[in-house]
Specification:
By secondary structure, the protein is of the alpha+beta class. Helix content is about 35%, strand content about 25%. It has helices at about 5-15, 50-55, 70-80, 115-125, 145-155, 160-180, and strands spanning about 20-30, 35-40, 85-90, 95-105, 130-135, 140-145. A six-stranded mixed sheet has the order 3-4-2-1-5-6. The longest helix has 18 residues, at about 160-180. The two termini are about 20 Å apart. The relative contact order is 0.17. Bound molecules: adenosine-5'-diphosphate and magnesium ion. Adenosine-5'-diphosphate binds near residues 60, 62 and 69.
């Protein structure tokens, strides 16, 4: 069973490989309505309908160094086993939206894992991408935009600076903790 933060990294990596310049990640958790929804929206090269229809086939991949693409098929299985599912909308030349839904309290729902590290990895390895991360947990919201950070600190090079990345890592970690009511990786 894969932690959700690693699934999120997979989905975002697909967006990066598709040449996206803008990637929005939204995570919405609601304990009352009992759902956890992950949405990744990109403005990459997109896919035509025919490709989207076969995307959950393990042999569907455009990767040149391997013959199977298991990211999306395994994620679908995991979501469907947890009272949810996955939906992909894409338009060639425009971009893609991936929505993954889980029943929050489902016994088999994978834990979130180290989301702060995932967010930092995405930012540190792709400083030129406008990455927007919005995370809602019940009534609380945390939002981080690399476009805004770049505007504040002046340039893109800053997102390669270890001191700034270290600060950013602590900032994201603290805010995620607050979202979960002060508990690390709050498995609530
Ligand atoms: N956001 C996206 N934009 C464009 N193509 C995508 C996107 N996500 C997935 N794909 C296509 O679907 C294929 C399968 O994805 P995945 O299951 O993650 O396997 P892999 O990434 O290992 O190939 C990718 O190879 C890629 O061609
Ligand atoms: Mg992939």
């Amino acid at each position: 069973m894969k932690e959700l933060s690693l699934n999120i990294l997979d989905i975002v990596e697909n967006s990066i490989k598709s040449g996206a310049k803008n990637i929005n990640l939204e995570i919405e958790e609601d304990n009352e309505k009992d759902f956890l929804i992950i949405t990744v929206k990109d403005d990459g090269k997109g896919m035509d309908n025919e490709f989207v229809r076969i995307i959950f086939d393990p042999f569907t991949t455009t990767s040149t160094n391997k013959k199977v693409g298991l990211g999306l098929p395994l994620l679908r299985e995991s979501a469907e086993n947890c009272g949810g599912g996955i939906e992909i909308q894409s338009e060639k030349g425009k971009g893609t939206i991936v929505v993954v839904k889980f029943k929050h309290s489902h016994i088999d729902r994978p834990p979130m894992g180290d989301l702060a590290s995932t967010i930092l990895t995405i930012i540190a390895t792709n400083p030129e991408i406008n990455f927007l991360y919005v995370h809602k947990v019940n009534e609380k919201v945390f939002k981080l935009s690399t476009k805004e950070i770049r505007e504040i600190v002046g340039d893109m090079a800053a997102l390669r600076d270890v001191t700034i990345l270290k600060w950013l890592g602590d900032y994201v970690r603290e805010n995620i903790k607050t979202l979960y009511g002060g508990e690390e990786n709050g498995k609530n």
